[in-house]
Design goal:
It holds the Pfam family Asp_DH_C. Belongs to the L-aspartate dehydrogenase family. By secondary structure, the chain is of the alpha/beta class. The protein folds into two domains: 143 residues, 3-Layer(aba) Sandwich (Rossmann fold), CATH 3.40.50; 129 residues, Dihydrodipicolinate Reductase, domain 2 (2-Layer Sandwich). The strands form two sheets. A six-stranded parallel sheet has the order 2-1-3-4-5-11, sandwiched between helices. Helix 1 links the parallel strand 1 and strand 2. Helix 4 packs parallel to helix 5 and helix 6 runs parallel beside helix 9. The chain binds nicotinamide-adenine-dinucleotide. The site of nicotinamide-adenine-dinucleotide (NAD) has 26 residues, from helix 1, helix 4 and helix 9.
Length: 284
């Protein structure tokens, strides 16, 4: 069996989960693992020959050990610095798609993914119905999309004004709206919390990061859950009616966890789907 060789960038919660998943599969193999702190890789007994010392060297490291897919699960800044290089070299799965809220980053990657030899894959994460959203966007008939994410205040990693509002939710013990608006700005304010919204903006490509609406709610009553509500409407028909879809996904989550339990399995499934679609931007 030909094994797909995967380069893993980041070895935190998701990276370690994916490492275990990839090494447990007959059809997948690790090409390299990079982490900002090397000792974490050594502590986890990652074989020495798989450890990439410097991300700057990933091309030469994979010269004799072909790499089919590079997966980032570290930080959005990785895509900004290395996204284009990764995509020139292999298919690229971007685990922190909030990076695409930077217009220059998105435009550069879209052009390269369209004209080049490799595909850019965006995991759906906790987004339900991503393919359906994309189909409506392809047809140009997606009129609006709103993603509401409700979590316990301890599940957010925020700073500035949003963090202050989050503290208000804790003190008042009432559900508090932290943000309501276009998701481009929100991606910069809460990069670790709204990857699902960024995936939605990619799927809803006729609306994009400016027109997809994101709502972030801190709710002390949401302990144990990440709740994601998706509301989509289609274009108005000549008789004035329009398609309307509402879904609510309740994802069990440990108290204080940024990532819901089912999202890990969703990531593994995305790794299997991030394959063979050719050049372009693909939801997986
Ligand atoms: N798409 C999704 O639905 C989804 C779900 C969960 C996590 N994520 C994203 O995946 C990434 C990893 O998540 P995690 O839960 O494993 O996080 P984590 O904090 O457990 O691990 C992050 C890893 O990346 C490293 N890192 C952090 N900042 C870095 C930087 N600026 N440059 C290089 N390395 C850096 C850390 O040392 C750590 O090893 C995050 O960006 C997170 O937002 C996306």
């Amino acid at each position: 069996m030909v094994k797909r060789k995967i380069g893993l960038v980041g070895f935190g919660h998701v990276g370690q989960y994916l490492y275990e998943f990839i090494t447990s599969r007959d059809n997948l193999e690790i090409a390299f693992v990079w982490n900002r702190t090397r000792s974490v890789l050594e502590d986890a007994a990652v074989p020495k020959h798989l450890i990439l010392e410097s991300l700057e060297d990933f091309e030469s490291h994979t010269l004799n050990r072909k790499c089919d897919l590079i997966i980032e699960v570290a930080h959005p800044s990785i895509t900004k610095t290395y996204g284009m290089r990764f995509l020139k070299h292999a298919d690229y799965m971007i685990g922190s798609p909030t990076a695409l809220a930077d217009e220059d980053v998105e435009t550069g990657l879209r052009e390269l993914a369209t004209e080049g030899a490799h595909g850019l894959y965006i995991p759906v994460g906790a987004l339900w119905g991503a393919e359906d959203i994309r189909r409506l966007a392809d047809a140009g008939t997606l009129h609006s999309l709103c993603i509401t994410m409700t979590k316990h205040p301890a599940a957010f990693r925020l700073s500035g004004r949003l963090d202050e509002l989050n503290q208000t939710a804790v003190e008042s013990q009432t559900a508090t709206v932290l943000y309501d608006g276009g998701i481009r700005a929100l991606c910069g304010l809460a990069p670790n919390n709204v990857n699902t919204m960024a995936a939605a903006a990619v799927a809803a490509h006729n609306l994009g990061f400016d027109k997809v609406r994101g709502r972030l709610i801190a709710d002390p009553a949401a302990e144990g859950w990440h709740i994601i509500r998706v509301e989509a409407t289609g274009s108005k028909l000549t008789n004035g009616t329009q398609l309307s879809v509402v879904t609510e996904r309740r994802n069990p989550a440990e108290t204080g966890a940024v990532t819901g339990s089912a999202t890990y399995a969703s990531f593994a499934s995305s790794v299997l789907s991030a394959h063979g679609k050719g050049p372009g931007f693909h939801i997986c």
